[in-house]
Design a protein that fits this description.
Layout lengths: L2 H6 L2 H7 L4 H18 L5 E5 L2 E8 L4 E5 L7 H4 L2 H5 L4 E5 L25 H14 L6 E5 L1 H12 L6 E5 L13 H6 L1 H14 L2 H12 L8 H5 L1 H4 L2 H12 L1 H8 L10 E6 L7 H11 L3 E6 L6 H4 L1 H13 L2
Parallel strand pairs: 3-4, 3-5, 5-6, 6-7, 7-8
Antiparallel strand pairs: 1-2, 2-4
Amino acid sequence: MTWKKLALSGTLLSALALAGCGAGLNSVASRNETRAEQAYPPEGQFVTVEGTRLHVVVRGQGPDLVLIHGASGSARDFTFAMVDRLATRYRVFAFDRPGMGFSDRTSERFDAARNTGAESPAQQAVVMQAAAAQLGATRPIVLGHSYGGAVAMAWALERPENFSGLVIVSGATQVWESGLSPQYPVLASTLGGSTLVPILAATVSEDWARDAVDRIFSPQMAPSGYADFVGVGLALRRDTLRANARQVNTLRGHLIEMVPHYPSITQPVEILHGTADRIVGFDIHARPLAEQLPNARLTPLRGIGHMPQHVAADEVIAAIDRIAAGL
């Protein structure tokens, strides 16, 4: 079953019909969440910035490098393989973005099931920059993947003195014209957040989620062991489902404000994007970004989908190294 079919086939009506079973659904969801958190515990340490506790994995020695994951993800996307490769010559900081993994939301008001708002890329960037600075990384290279690309761009705009260069991988950085997949507005809504989210958290199987992982990697295949390692159950927790949907659902509005300021970013920016990316289109996002930035290098990855950090890791690491060579 696809998300589009899920949204359009009456599932939301089923959610309304099942609303009276909320206590039972939430009990099942709670058990699922406990199992996921026990199976995939935090790998790193916690840093608190003005009351917001962030989870970050810190490994290696060398120039500082911050890694920012995309939608529905966590630092585990990077600790699967890339952190170990990079830690041989960089001090790597792989964050769980606010509301994802084991990191707090930036405000308690975002926690409410019926709230439809979410922290902006700028709010996320500011709190992660402060956390990185607490750990001694004052001018890191910042890499952002997918939604994390928008957060990396916001870091550059909000904290221009606190980074040395950007690596944007499959970055969602531009204002797109067509609508989002229906899952985002449905789950981000007051009704969906309070009724449909608990149903999904209680009933969606990890096998279904693993199929979703394969779709994200298409046309390539996910590396062997990736779905087991990344902890898809963490993404199916109620708070995480709501946070992810609302962050993605509000992203376009924030990009409308951000894009006109991109030309002010003068530090080097490496842009890597698969030409076969069906989630964040190359021509919609990567090509315009390269034209908006005064010091950018665009590397089209021919035939690559949405996950270059796994299926074209050598090219991504080479881009990081080019930024580091100029420090």
